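User: Batch of two.

Assistant: Item 1 of 2:
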Amino acid sequence: MPKVLIIEDDDVIADGMSRHLVSAGFDPIWVNKGESGLARLRYENPDVCVLDLMLPGLDGWRLIETARREGIGTPIVVVSARGTEHDRVHALEIGADDYLVKPFSMKELVARVRAAARRGVRAQGEERGDPIEAEGLRVDPLNVQAYLDGRSVELTPTEFRLLYALALERGRVVTRDELLQRIWGRRQTRRDRTVDVFVRKLRDKLEALGPSHTFIQTRYGVGYKFEPTPKDAAERAS
């Protein structure tokens, strides 16, 4: 049974989530403080973490940042009453994998958790092919990491999956909806900026290492493609 760590300080909400997850075949563990949640995340290796942001002590924002900084790749599904676009985008930027705004349907929560757990299992099986190399960039599925001129790009597991999915389709524009389904297990909605946020993060991390090429090109209104392009040519095209 996939293990789900619930970090939520509202007893009623946590109990409801636990009961629905048990009915769906999951093994939920519940804690109500950020510090104890981070400890469980470190040492129990859950398949998915369901995280409230507004926690006493260590809040959800700092928990996500700490977990990702320590290299913990557990998929994190945020559940929060904070529903602004800024909150959603910021949570994704610092390492969350999904975001649900309270109040939400328990059926939707179960579906999001199931998709997150499935992505985690698939990553171990799919991302073990040959490395992909282009203009000094090495996308290495064995180590689930990318290297630019021998230096690690320090990608999170989700960032790596996105880069690897694009690199496998080198030269082809992959739509946002296709990427959302492949990486996050859901269909695109009008306001969903998840793919754009993660592409920006990938570009920022690659740019920080001073490459001579850009690697992810935008097809406006459609999606993205992996196509190494010399920087001067990319700047002229933009």
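Item 2 of 2:
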Amino acid sequence: MKTICLYFQVHQPWRLKTYRFFNMGVDHNYLDDLSNRAILQKVARQCYLPMNALLLKLIKEQKGRFRCSFSLTGTVVEQFRAYAPEVLESFRELAETGCVEFLAETYSHSLASLASQEDFEEQVKLHTAMVRKEFGMKPTAFRNTELIYSDHIGEMVAQMGFKTILAEGAKHVLGWKSPNYVYANALNQKLHVLLRNYKLSDDIAFRFSNRSWAEWPLTAEKYAGWLADDEMAGEVINLFMDYETFGEHQKADTGIFDFMKALPQQVLATRKLEFATVSEASKKYQPVSVLHCPHEMSWADEERDVTAWLGNELQNEAFSKLYGLKEKVKALNNKDFNYVWNFLQTSDHFYYMATKWLSDGDVHSYFNPYGSSYEAFINYMNVLSDFEIEVDKAYKARQNRRRA
């Protein structure tokens, strides 16, 4: 019997307002409160609330045989608290069923794993504390920002005590091997690696409403048939996707909610498939081999690397300047500075600066609120420059007090 492992990523960044040079030194409120509220509440209506209600209903109908996993970034949880507390309560209801697992990740959906182990560990500790507070569980499985993974990142995650990590089933890493097995990290083989089956995941996340797709319309019966096909090798099929797929990227009128409503019954009716959370799947199967991944990979774009965030001079300059402030921010240990420091680390800010306009251009433009990559860079750097000025002022004042 094959295991189906459904995992959903839930994330919304804190969006920056239009911040000009003339704001520097005068205005230290960097967030676009109106946009953040409007977008969060729109996605809550279209996705989070109806989908959470549907999943709760499916869990009850299937008497616990339907199971799934989530990770919610710290930034989206902060927005739930501020703008839609009913969404957070609906996630708590899912947690109480015992059929939903919440994974750990970086609190701010950051690129800290590419900056330093210290920053990475701090972000993960913040997130783990949030999961414990909101959902009453200690995560044992980990999902890095945008599934960024390498042998070294996996080793760091294992050192933090996690048993399982998610990663992309990228062809350039797997070669001839199938993503439908559990693998072991190359540097610490106690860490199990679950790999996303990107074809089957993207059939739902990206192709579901594409009328030019040869398999359109995709029905739950057809999809369950693919999963149960004896010719598909493997033990665990990992279907990982953004939660906003449901109702936001794939609108309700595409039939995406009807598809999801019918899927558990169709899957279980095959008698060849079962559902499991990430940790349950990891415990059930032993790794078939070691996965060697010396360079960072992700689930983004065709290249499946980190160039979506750090692929040009704009992104690298912003990234370097941001993390150049780390020591001063840490020394100050000021609540307000820490808050700004956290949301400025969010990977979306760097994604908006991408200049990859080939086959991935539509994806980047869809998620980008700016008119151009350069506009995103200038706005971010204006905010970062003002933040740097304030940090320097506070740091010098701290040094003067120590000398006095």
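Residues 2-291 form a domain with the 7-stranded beta/alpha barrel fold (CATH 3.20.110.20).
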